[in-house]
Structure formats: C-alpha cells, structure tokens
Design goal:
The chain is about 50% helix and about 20% strand.
C-alpha cells in the first residue's frame, strides 16, 4: 500500500463526493490531510500500487505496422511503462487489453494510462473510462491534445459510426456471396462448414 496525495478536486472525484464534504471529513478526522506551503489541502489516500501503462490500439490486422509504430513511439516516451495492445474496433468494449486495464483499476490499482490519441482508447465512452481510472486515484494522459469544435467533433464521430457500419455491411455482403457460392456448388455441408 502506498499513500498518494490528491488535490481537493481529485479527492472529490475519487470518493464521488463534493469538496465541501471532504472539508467536513477533514474537520471530523475521517480523512487525513496535509497542507502545502501555500496552505492548500492535500488529501492522503491509500492506494494499492501505482502503475504506468501505455495503451496502443488499431482496428484491424492490416494495420499491424501502425500498431508497431505506436508501440515504439510510446516505449520511447515512457520506457518504464508496461505496454498493452489491442487489435479491435474502437467501438468494441470487449477488447482484452482494455478489459484488463479496467479490471485492475476497479480492483484498486492506481493506473497512469498513456495513449497517443483519445480515439486509440475508445471512440465513445472516454469519460466513463476516465472516471473508472480516476476512482482508483489514477489518470489518463492523452499525448495528442488536438481540440476540435463541438461541430467538428460531432461530424468526426458520425463519420466513424458510418465507417464502422459500412464495413459491417460489406462483411455481410461477403458472407452472403460465400453462402450462395457454397449452396450453388451442390450445397454440401463440407463447403458450408468451410465458411465457419
């Protein structure tokens, strides 16, 4: 176990309470605090351990080269950090690497999570993942801090959704084509089982 000093805002997010509640806990001795030289409070929180993790993701195996470049870049930036990779859609929350990180955060590990771009972590739900990480006194650091206007961000998100669904439609058309081909070849179970 390790003691981590949190600002009032960070401690409020950690405990899911208001800053005024933290002050009351301080006065009643329910929580330990320390004062900085400037007189600001720092709340003393016991955390299991602190881990630095770099998360890298690409959408398909065709982008494996891009994944390797991401990993190399992140390892150069954070040489002592653990690296977790996934090859899956940013809309897919069943990714093994992401689930492992979230599971560790839920168990109480304080995780400093580093990602190159916000969309490498997820297309949607970034705030939820950030909340889970912060609940265990961790943080998410996004290296590319490009700020988009709300209109540009909404447009980008809609284009991502359209792209994902068009890829799925293409996959279904491909599946139907193979199914029809298998049925035209005599419909043998052997041909149909090959598709699975």
């Amino acid at each position: 176990m390790k003691i981590k000093k949190l600002t009032p805002k960070e401690a409020a997010e950690y405990f899911s309470v208001h800053v005024h509640t933290l002050r009351q806990w301080d006065k009643s001795g329910k929580i330990k605090t320390e004062r900085t030289a400037g007189g600001d409070r720092r709340y003393m929180i016991e955390v299991k351990d602190e881990f630095d993790i770099c998360y890298c993701r690409v959408s398909s195996y065709k982008q494996k080269d891009d994944l390797e470049r991401q990993v190399k870049f992140m390892q150069e930036k954070f040489p002592n950090a653990e690296t977790v990779t996934d090859i899956a859609s940013g809309l897919n929350f069943k990714r093994q690497g992401l689930k492992a990180i979230l599971e560790r955060a839920i168990q109480g590990d304080s995780i400093n999570l580093y990602v190159a771009h916000k969309d490498r972590l997820c297309r949607f739900g970034f705030d939820l993942i950030e909340w889970i990480i912060k609940r265990s006194a961790g943080k998410i650091v996004v290296l590319d801090q490009t700020v988009l206007s709300p209109d540009a961000e909404l447009t980008r998100d809609l284009l991502h959704i359209l792209h994902v669904f068009s890829c799925r439609m293409h996959g279904l058309r491909n599946y139907r084509k193979h199914l029809n081909h298998a049925l035209c070849d005599g419909g043998s179970k052997k041909n149909i089982q090959k598709m699975d």
